[in-house]
Amino acid sequence: MANTKKYWKGLEQLDNDSKFVESSNDEFAEQLPVTEFLGNKEDLEDATTTRRDFLKYLGFGVAAASLAACETPVTKAIPYLNKPEEITPGLANYYASTYYDGNDYAPILVKTREGRPIHIVGNKESVLTKGAINARVNASVLSLYDNNRLKAPSVKGEDTTWATIDNRLGKELKAAKSVRILTGSVISPSAQSVLDTFFEANASTVFVGDERVAMKRPYEATVYDTISYSGILEANAASFGKAIVPTYNFEKAKTIVSVGADFMGNWLDALQYVNDYAQTRKPNGEWMSKTFQFEASMSLSGTNADVRVPVKPSEYGAVISSLYAHLGGSGGAKTAYDARVKEAAKALKASKGESIVVCGSNDKNVQVIVNAINELLGNYGKTIDVNTVSNSKQGLDSEVAALIADMNAGKVDALLISGVDPLFTIGDAFAKAMKKVKTTVSFATKMDDTAAACMYVCPSNHALESWSDANPVTGHYSLGQPTISPLFDTRQTEESLLKWSGNDSSYHDFIKKYWEENVFPQSGSLMFTDFWNKTLHDGVVEVSTPASETTAVFAGDVSKAVSAVKAIKGNGIELELVQNMGVGAGVGADNPWLQEMPDPITKITWDNYVTMNPSEMEEKGYETHFGQEHSMNVVTVDASGGGSIQLPVIAQPGQAKGTVGVAVGYGKKVGNQEEITGANAYLLIDRKKSDVSYYGSVTLKDVELDEPYYIACTQTQQTVMGRDSVIRETTLDTYKKGDREAFNPVWTLLSGETETDEHGHQHQVAKPLKEFDLWGDQPVKNIGHRWGMSIDMNSCTGCSACVTSCVSENNIAVIGKDQVRRGRIMHWMRIDRYYSSEHQPLGDVGGTHKATKEAEELGAIGAYTSMENPADNPSVVHQPMMCQHCNHAGCETVCPVAATTHSNEGLNMMAYNRCIGTRYCANNCAYKVRRFNWFNYIAYSKFTDINPSQDDLGRMVLNPDVVVRSRGVMEKCSLCVQRIQEGKLDAKKAGSKVQDGAIQTACSAACPTNAITFGDHNDKESKLAAERESDRAYRVIEEVGQDGNVYYQTKVRNLKAKA
Amino acid sequence: MNKIINLTKANTLIKVSLLCLSFLFFQFDSYSQDTEKGKKLFKANCAACHNVGTKVVVGPGLQGVGEKHDREWLEKWIKNSGELIASGDAAANEIFNEFKKSIMPPQAVSTEDIDNILAYIANPGDGGGEIIVDGPPTGEVVEEDNSVMMYLFGGAIVLLLILIITLNKTGVFVKEVIAKDAGETYEGPTTLYGNLKKLMGDNKGIVAAIVIVLFFGGLLNLVDGAFQIGVHQGYKPEQPIKFSHKIHAGDDKIDCNYCHSSARHSKTSGIPSLNVCMNCHKAIDGSDGKTFMYNGEQYSMTEEIQKIYDHLDYNPETQEYGDNPTPVKWVKIHNLPDHVYFSHQQHVVAGKQKCQTCHGPVEEMDVVEQHAPLTMKWCIECHKETAVATEGNGYYDEMHDRMTPEFKEKVLNDGVLTVDEIGGWECAKCHY
């Protein structure tokens, strides 16, 4: 085997912790505590159900069941009175719409059944995102059915009617001398127009002193981005004279250097980058991109980068300056990572005009240098476009600070807050200022910290109940349409504002009029109705914009910026605030699907935490291992700029030493269920400085808790033990040599027969796997359909959009932190994250533990000293894992009741009603993909607050084509058999073969990078058949002979193999 | 029992005489071929918008239309009313204006047809014998007899009990007398219980045999019964509106798909929404006061059709809809368990099955009942026998091409490709 790397899922496995080994040998981490319970007399007597009671219940149960069985339940069928033409009961409709939460923008398709939105996928028509979504976009459909949503307008906490609100608030707004609106970035041109209308309508009522003066007030809307990109905006203002966010074309970038920017996960418009980026990761293409990631906390981009260098946040600026110097700029000093920076500079130089350098810092000066580097490389106009701008981030920190100052000075009479929760994300500074404002209005959809402090709460509709439009990027427009009538007595923000402007038109009419007047003329279409209907159907439209006459000229003061950056000094333990893929900036915090989705990197659910380098934790004596009964250390994180929160510490291999990372978005005081834990990391931001920085320094103090603090981490659950052929990985040069044996050898096993070679040595004959098979060939291997998948590990970023998509499609139960900790997570699809401890060779040359000649020349010995511990900077592989639909499945042979059998289409079927819950199948599954329903999660009162399907509202999101499983049965990935059946039926009705690509599973449809290909192995022209024959294709632990239908594509890193 | 037989006989007698009577009527009714033809033509072409009485539907009621306008004018109007209006004809324009300037579409009917239609309008008759007169249905009589039987059976048991007790007393008394005569005292059991005990003690073998028979009989019964749990074959609930499938699908020959249109497009056949009812019942309002049979009882069409209007909050006089409609809560007859995925379009479109295969002769049922047991056994038995509708379907052609010779041999040896041979017996075809 060419691949001798050691892969490990967690430190437990790396350290070969005895408890871990023991628990991994068992499929089920915890046995039912029958013997302890029955053996303990006290426990038995304490139990609320005595033996007599039990027998009584049993008797009653049997009697009741038999009585109930005699009674025919009368089911009513209630048809429409007047059926809408487009609805056919039992058939799904898809509507194009738009998702924008102030952070992520995505054109989407909403699947509705009988008028209920039940599933969200990306809109592939969009040239911006190419159908990319993340888990938050996908799971937003669940928040529509959140029973904690605001259901009626209220004044000072008392529910009231809209008429009362309009009446009272109308008067107050008219009387107010200064009305301010605080919003997130407004990418909707119509919403912007509504704001203009609102201010215009109220302009004539301004008072100066006691005198009513007809004058137009200055523009008084303030944009506040929860996650600020003010640094980039200001840097571009300084560099190009425009405070804009440029658009990046990752599809053309051969070299990407990112310093602390998670451009595949949460940085800027990641959804617009990720698909483009994945296109450059095809090793068999003309070229493959190379990524360098300098960062403190392990991010999604860091895990996918070819070269990852752990760097302290305070050194981000220094790394950028030094990179600038290496590229020929002036002023940058050498850093401790000079060898790596040099390597990056070399790669950048080799791909001038075809590279991108980005930085996650919110420091204007750092961003000016980043601009200077991109200018130096000639990237502007090629991979970076400052004329086609992104509108999704518009907030300037200075404006927010000015608003707070005005509020404190009593200059604000009325404050309207829409789309943001400043009390949660800014905290006390804002709360104090808000007390000075007479009239406060919140448009929140759900009670949040800010809404709770506002006088008027005018709940807006959920996005899926609203009309909207968006202009995310110059020339790109999209429309959003409601897919359900408002469930509660809510009113869309824009409609409220229109009402208070004396405009009674509906927002739908307003948008339509706006488009007729503004967008339609640019479109080149002939008829507005046609244009409107087509755009509404497609969801997105591109209009031609007049080409910018001048190319932007870089005019930034780099030397000033370099010297300013030099002044940045880190001190003590450095903190980096990050967003994780589930919660993001906070939108996912109250969404059970997202809370239960394991974080792509830490694999932790239902919690936030401090990430720390394991070797530093060992020094401090902290618990670095996870486990069902491993209590974690809890610390108080005190930020030097004020702010203190209490969180558990977890070990994160690859975390830069001397740094800790904490995810924001958790810890809302209002509006979250009790189960949602975590502290508010926004409070750690130093608000005394005018510029928001997500980096800082902290001190950690140990906290003694009365009770142990457990973490629900799935990383070492479902571990495939004792197998070394799970991951196949190689370097680009090895791959390019084309010798399959070197990177993806075909399995052979020693047969026991001996032969003598020419030297007279005897050795065993190796034979292909087939020879050892217990079974004959699968009878339908080449007959009819054989469904399967191919997963490209080069494209998979680990983002986990597929996981929530699977949950949404297949009605997978949410079980809560306690159950997840016990290894009972129900997800049919998991993304295994493997660390590998082979050190990254410096300069792409050989040698791991000692510097090679070339490396010495580069002067990089320092880079090695920190590389002694494999957990210090491991490389990472993400591997989506679900039922492999083995043709010779281990599970099928051990089921005593034939509840799981093989179909003639290659599917491993699961008949829930046959299952008696012996769990033999799960024990015999080599891939550990079978899930057991330990409880009746959709009915048992213990899960009422956790499982959204327990109330009538939450149940509306269930997919009616898939059964909801009950207690005591096994379940697992069905390859979305309901979609296969539907696709086959469509083909039969059309009288043609099933077209390749016509059937998509929930995961393949959700994948933003198209890493998952679903298809029919027996369709020779299918993409799947081609991928199966590819030289990178392999099957996980193929040597055990299960003959699965799911293939993986060997991961290829753009590195050179060690000599 | 004699009584029942007699009643049944009487019933048959009534039926036969009614049949003879109807023949008489038929004979009497068929005096004019024109009217019969006209009626058919009217129903096919005119009834959607016109009533033979005075009632306005979409267009005016046609009673006396033959007298109002001359024959030539009528023909012109029917064949192309637009032309007539355009020509400036006063009468035509008057009608045109009266009916909100909507033009009656030109009708492709011959002169002869128009004669027939006019003849029918002039003499619409009684509506073609739709009044169904029938004797009291036999079901009821039998039901009454059942209760009589119950009383008789109960009475017999009471009598038997009295007899046994009396016999026991007498027996004991006799034994005591005999014992007294012999100068002894009777020491055997005196109570009925005691005597039974003695009897059973003396005949242990027989008792054991009876017990064993009873036990296994009961067990068999229980198992049999258990298999019937949840099987509701013959379930025949009354519906909130007495909708007769016999009249609609049988007599009027309306295609099943007309109302259950989603059967071709979706997994569910769909219960028609009331707007589908109104396609016809806007015109057919039941104002002629006819009655019909439903579940053996006579119902008024007027009342039942009025229920549709009530649910829609529709006023047939003004032809306007109010804003307070209420849904109809039909009772669902075919209830598959939740864990079964059944698709109508799969069976109706891809499988080319007739509705009647599973639903039975719905066109003969006034109250629809569950015809099939809807058990899994029933499903798979059908899948075992039914041939796949492969003819002319490109999908199956492709599947056929992908067969290996051995597989072809295996599945096509009997010349039929049945559903189970292509996987119709597999769990995940219906359960997911």
Task: Jot down its keywords.
heterodimer; A: 1059 residues; alpha/beta; Rossmann fold; Dimethylsulfoxide Reductase, domain 2; Barwin-like endoglucanases; 4 domains; 7-stranded mixed β-sheet; 6-stranded mixed barrel; 36 helices; 20% strand; B: 432 residues; mainly alpha; Cytochrome Bc1 Complex, Chain D, domain 2; two-stranded antiparallel ribbon; 18 helices; elongated; disordered N terminus
Protein described:
The complex is a heterodimer of chains A (1059) and B (432). Chain A is an alpha/beta fold and 1059 residues long. Chain A folds into four domains: 154-226 and 396-538, Rossmann fold (3-Layer(aba) Sandwich), CATH 3.40.50.740; 230-390, Dimethylsulfoxide Reductase, domain 2; 570-713, Barwin-like endoglucanases, CATH 2.40.40.20; 720-837 and 880-1053, 2-Layer Sandwich (Alpha-Beta Plaits). Chain A has 36 helices and 45 strands. The longest helix of chain A has 20 residues, at 51-70. Chain A starts with 6 loop residues before the first strand and ends in a 6-residue tail after the last strand. Helices cover 54% and strands 3% of the residues of chain B. Chain B has five domains: 1-29; 33-122, Cytochrome Bc1 Complex, Chain D, domain 2, CATH 1.10.760; 138-228, no CATH class; 245-373, no CATH class; 375-432, no CATH class. Residues 1-14, 16-32 and 127-144 of chain B have low confidence and may be disordered. Chain B is built from 18 helices and five strands. At the A-B interface, strand 2 and helix 34 of A face helix 12, strand 5, helix 14 and helix 17 of B. Strand 2 (76-77) of chain A pairs antiparallel with strand 5 (330-331) of chain B.
